[in-house]
Amino acid sequence: MDLAELTSKASSAVQPGGDFTKKVKFDFGSVGKLFIDGVAGTVDNSDGAADATIKVDWDDFQKISGGQMDPTMAFMQGKLKVEGDMSVAMQLQSLMQKFS
């Protein structure tokens, strides 16, 4: 999966008025960014202001989303970093299952 495919899958999983009502940004370094606006129900690759920013290497993100790496362990090992509201990051687990 590449960033364009992930963006497409995330777009179909995020709906206005849905369960996820925060703004979160995934920063994959040189690969790019994924910005999810749960309030508006939009997903794009912009670098907007977010309630939480998740910094993770693209390969590690794919392992996490594929179930080969535990997100909690990735966080504890420093492979996944959260800036901003940690509770927003915790809400992502159910959303990510829809687009992994």
Would you mind describing this structure in some detail?
- With 100 residues, the chain is of the alpha+beta class.
- Helices cover 39% and strands 23% of the residues.
- It has four helices and five strands.
- The chain has helices at residues 3-13, 58-65, 71-76, 86-99, and strands at residues 23-27, 33-37, 42-44, 52-56, 80-84.
- The chain has a five-stranded mixed β-sheet with strand order 3-2-1-4-5.
- A hairpin with a 5-residue loop joins strand 1 (23-27) and strand 2 (33-37).
- Helix 1 crosses helix 4.
- The model has no long low-confidence stretch (mean pLDDT 92).
Report the portion of residues in β strands: 15-25%
The run of helices and strands is: HEEEEHHEH
**Average pLDDT:** 92
Number of helical segments with 4 or more residues: 4
Query: Helix fraction?
Result: 25-40%
Stretches where pLDDT is under 50 for at least 5 consecutive residues are none
- Distance from first to last alpha carbon: 10 Å
Query: What's the alpha carbon Rg, rounded to whole Å?
Result: 12 Å
Q: The biggest beta sheet, please?
A: 5 strands, mixed
Feature tags:
100 residues; alpha+beta; five-stranded mixed β-sheet; 4 helices
Topology:
Elements: H1 3-13, E1 23-27, E2 33-37, E3 42-44, E4 52-56, H2 58-65, H3 71-76, E5 80-84, H4 86-99
Helix pairs in contact: 1-4
Question: TL;DR of this structure?
Answer:
Helices cover 39% and strands 23% of the residues. It has 100 residues and is an alpha+beta fold.
